[in-house]
Request: fold
Amino acid sequence: MTLAREVVDLDARTKGRDHPEYAAGLANLASCHLASGSPAAAEPLFREALGVDRASLGRDHPQYRMHLVPFAQTLRTLGRADEAENLFREALSLAERDLGPDHPGLLPLLDHLVLTLVDLGELAEANTLLKRSVNLTIRTLGPDHPDLAVRLNNWAGINLDLGRFDQAEELFGQALAICLGRLPADHPQVQTLESNLNLARRLRQEKGGG
Reply:
C-alpha cells in the first residue's frame, strides 16, 4: 500500500495529475484498498482515475474500460448497485465493441452484471444474461469447463427464485454432472449442488402435487 501511494505521489510530481500513468497509479492504489477491505477509501481514487482517463485518453481507450470494472465492483460492495449497474453496462458495451460479441473476455463482465441485477431484483434480465453467458461458455471454453458448472448453478438459482423449478432442477443436474466428472463425491461443491438439486426437485414436486 505504501509503495503504491509513493508511486502516485511521484507520478503527480513528475508527470502531472492529468497524465494517464497517474491515473493508472491511482487505480492501482484503489485496488490495494479494495483488496484490503476498504472500498470507501478506494471509491474516490477510482473516480479520480476514471476522470483522468476520460480527459487524457478518451472513453474508447482500453485503460478506461479496464478501470471501469473495479470501480463498479467497489460501488456494488458499498451497496450502490444502481450506479454499479450503469458502469458494468458501459464496460460490457465497450468490450463487445473491442473484442466482439462472442469473445470469452466478456464472460467476467456478464457475471458482474448478472450479480448486480440480482442485487437490484431484476431477475428476468439476469436470467436472460445468464443464458447468454452459459451458451458463450460452452462455445468458447467447452461443455466440461468448471466455469460452466458455476454459471449453470447461478442460472439454476435464478430460475428457482423465479419459480421455474423444472428448469432449475435440470440446470442443477447439468452442473452436478460436470462437477462429478472432475471432483470426488464428497467434495463440498458436489455436496452443495446435490443439495440444490434436491431442493429444486422437492419444490417442483410440491408445485405439481407430487
User: Anything to note?
Assistant: Residues 188-208 form the longest helix (21 residues). The two ends are 58 Å apart (CA to CA).
